[in-house]
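not sure who needs this but someone in the group chat was asking about Regulatory protein, ArsR from Vecturithrix granuli so here u go. i didnt clean anything up, its just raw.
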Amino acid sequence: MKLEESMAIVKALADHSRLMILQALLDKPQYVEELSERLNLAASTVSFHLKKLEQAQLVSKTKEQYYVVFQANRKALNLTLHDLVSVEGIEKAVQEERIQQYTQKVIRTFFKEGKLQQIPAQHKKRWLVLAEIAKRFQPGRSYTEQEVNEIILPVYEDYCTIRRELVEQHLLARNGSTYWVAESPAEVVQSDLQRSFQESLKSKGLHQ
């Protein structure tokens, strides 16, 4: 579902009168005057709310003789919260592009000629920096602690700190003095950043 569609539905439902109208329409299709009488609302007020619900595709209308009859869109009303907060299509592509741009910006800021200048204080940036270093390890292969140190040293002198951080952030797994890649660093970072953007969008969508 597109972000704009989700936001339209959430906004349309954030009104007591519209919820009452939808409840009435779930009982049976009705026209404006009938809803007005049933809910004790002015016909103009009912018409206003029906327009908002129609724009959100929560109701539809058909003309029967002299009346315009409104009915609930049961397919839309059967949407789950998961459906509403899932972002697809162009918006998802835009999010992924933002993530890539942000990642590249962080890498350019903290790496100079392949060497890490400093460890970022912010968790998200530190994660990206560590993931960049983790790319030097081959998935499926086991490493001794000495081998891990030798891979990290050309990138950053304090290899002990980086080695510990890689394990703590689950980019490297450890069993005694044996290390290996725990998960694809690119996939881990993509997933973590995607969740951040999704949470931001949910918050904005629900409070606009």
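also The first strand starts at residue 30 and ends at 31. if thats useful
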